[in-house]
Amino acid sequence: WEAIQTGTGNSQYSGSVTIGTSLSGSTYQLNDTSRGNHKTYNKARSTSSSAGTLFTDADDTWGTGTASSSSTSQTAAVDAHYGAQVTWDFYKNVLGRNGIKNNGVAAYSRVHYGNAYVNAFWDDSCFCMTYGDGEGNTKPLTSIDVAGHEMTHGVTSNTAGLNYSGESGGLNEATSDIFGTAVEFYAANSKDVGDYLIGEKIDINGDGTPLRYMDQPSKDGSSANYWSSSLGGLDVHYSSGPANHFYYLLSEGSGSKTINGVSYNSPTSNGATITGIGRDKATKIWYKALTEYMTSTTNYKGARTATLNAAAALYGSGSTEYNAVNATWAAVNVTG
Ligand code: ASN
Ligand code: ZN
Ligand code: CA
């Protein structure tokens, strides 16, 4: 018998948070029974394919809130568990999706994977996401935008199924950045105020810069701002650029802007000025396009059509939103 509990989590990146746990006998577990039984496991440096050991605790207060190189620290587990929880709630409350497969069943998370492993990934075969501890084993890749990114790979796999290469691969990656960002803005805690940067908290470059910039993807030195005929030859984490840029422009508009203390400057390929329609509408348009109009082979031209169809269905063809989608694609060099 397991009772639904809410534990206190002292996370590394999101402050003190409430997390879904359960009580089995007299032991608490990282098993969120209110969200499809999402469990978080400890790999304790192993890279084997097993789930690992379910995190347990005596008093339902988890983690210390500070970085630790311990291979079994609860803190990384708190961030991963919380990230999955907020992502679950975002999909349910904002987009009406009940879990990755829309069937109420959760995936699971594994932390402390490998030794100083600097990556996180979704795996269709285990239906799980996995997080390394980062450089020095003290920078786990468990920030909320990364958790939202990885869990969204599961959603994409189970909806459009965008092939993970060429332009469809870039759109797959962008979909994870888009909803990872939307999840970060959705999170209601004191530390995650929301930004259009990816991985700004995990310090993967060692100099405080984020992994990716949605307002101007080329700021990472490798991503494309605009579509070109050679885009599909880039790594999928760089060919995501024009779609990430599309999402920023459609949400916030072109030019300079400061949001939650972060400064952005978003250019356009054609010199057009774009007026944003807001992040909520941009998010709903991308989700409807992903789940109803995109397929495994959708390319950038197809993404334009899919989002126009989604905007027409949601707001009407010829609506302000529809026209903004059209103008924004043109501003990243995607036309009909
Ligand atoms: N962290 C990467 C991602 O989710 C892992 C990968 O390249 N598959 O995209
Ligand atoms: Zn990814
Ligand atoms: Ca972010």
From TrEMBL:
Compartments, record wording: Secreted
Residues covered by the Peptidase M4 C-terminal domain: 160-334
GO BP annotation list: proteolysis
Keywords: Hydrolase, Metal-binding, Metalloprotease, Protease, Secreted, Signal, Zinc
Limits of the Peptidase M4 domain: 6-157
Enzyme Commission number: 3.4.24.-
Family: Belongs to the peptidase M4 family.
Name used for this protein in its record: Neutral metalloproteinase
Lineage, uppermost ranks: Bacteria, Bacillati, Actinomycetota, Actinomycetes, Kitasatosporales
Full protein segment contained here: 218 to 553 of 553
